[in-house]
Write a structure and sequence with these properties.
Radius of gyration: 16 Å
CATH topology: Rossmann fold
Structural class: alpha/beta
CATH architecture: 3-Layer(aba) Sandwich
Largest sheet: 7 strands, mixed
CATH superfamily: Class I glutamine amidotransferase (GATase) domain
Strand content: 15-25%
Distance between the termini: 30 Å
Number of helices: 7
Order of helices and strands: HHEHEEEEEHEHEEEEHH
CATH class: Alpha Beta
């Protein structure tokens, strides 16, 4: 499963990189990407096959992409890195047409979930209240739950977060939200997918990064 899926993503990369952004047209719109800082099971994989794929698809759809985190520091793996990162405290959500939150493999069955920065919660709430789409991949829907924006909404997660397993606790923040499985789920302006590249690698499930990003592009651009 992993080999087939990763190969498919690499084929997409090969295709989109053969076109310039002018071929897609410049929309003049920018989106904000917020990678979550903290633990990661495979940082190189997530930088390349999640953040890298997202940025490439967004840019080739004619969208500007700013990356911001609490610290604003580069995210550096053994071989891959994300640079040119803004600090969230300097971000004005009015400058952006939407928000996308990669999983970055932060948290998991055997790892604690680092606290979500208050700035992230505020940005998510403001974006949705302003009618802007918000997308979250892999474990990142937990951020939306903590922001309180999933109540009454259908969402995706790798498993039902309200059902404990032998290795994973329940997530009370998801109370009053509607679990829709691990695949791509869109409920209005909220777009979620429950499987990132690391979860694909570990569990053999379908990586939803490309589908999530494409759905987000449609929500932002209308096409």
């Amino acid at each position: 499963m992993r080999k087939v899926s990763i190969f498919a993503v690499m084929m997409i990369l090969a295709v989109v990189t053969s076109f310039s952004s002018e071929a897609f047209g410049q929309s003049g719109k920018k989106v904000l990407m917020i990678p979550r800082e903290g633990y990661s099971a495979d940082l190189d994989l997530m930088i390349k096959m999640e953040v890298g794929v997202m940025r490439l698809l967004l840019k080739n759809a004619g969208l500007g992409v700013d990356v911001a985190t609490t610290s604003g520091l580069p995210i550096v793996g053994p071989n891959e890195k994300i640079t040119d990162i803004k600090q969230l405290r300097s971000i004005n959500i009015n400058d952006y047409a939407g928000v996308i939150i990669p999983c970055m493999a932060v948290g998991g069955a055997m790892q604690p979930y680092p606290a979500v920065a208050p700035e992230v919660l505020a940005i998510v709430k403001k974006a949705l209240s302003d009618g802007k789409p918000v997308a979250a991949n892999g474990n990142a829907p937990a951020t939306l739950a903590e922001a309180g924006v999933l109540k009454g909404k259908k969402y995706s997660f790798v498993r039902d977060p309200l059902k404990a397993t032998q290795t994973a606790p329940t997530f009370p923040a998801f109370q009053d939200a509607i679990y829709g499985g691990s695949g791509l789920v869109q409920d209005g302006l909220i777009i979620t997918s429950g499987v990132c590249p690391t979860l694909e690698k570990v569990l053999g499930m379908e990586n939803g990064t490309v589908k999530l990003t494409n759905a987000f592009i449609v929500a932002v651009t209308g096409k």
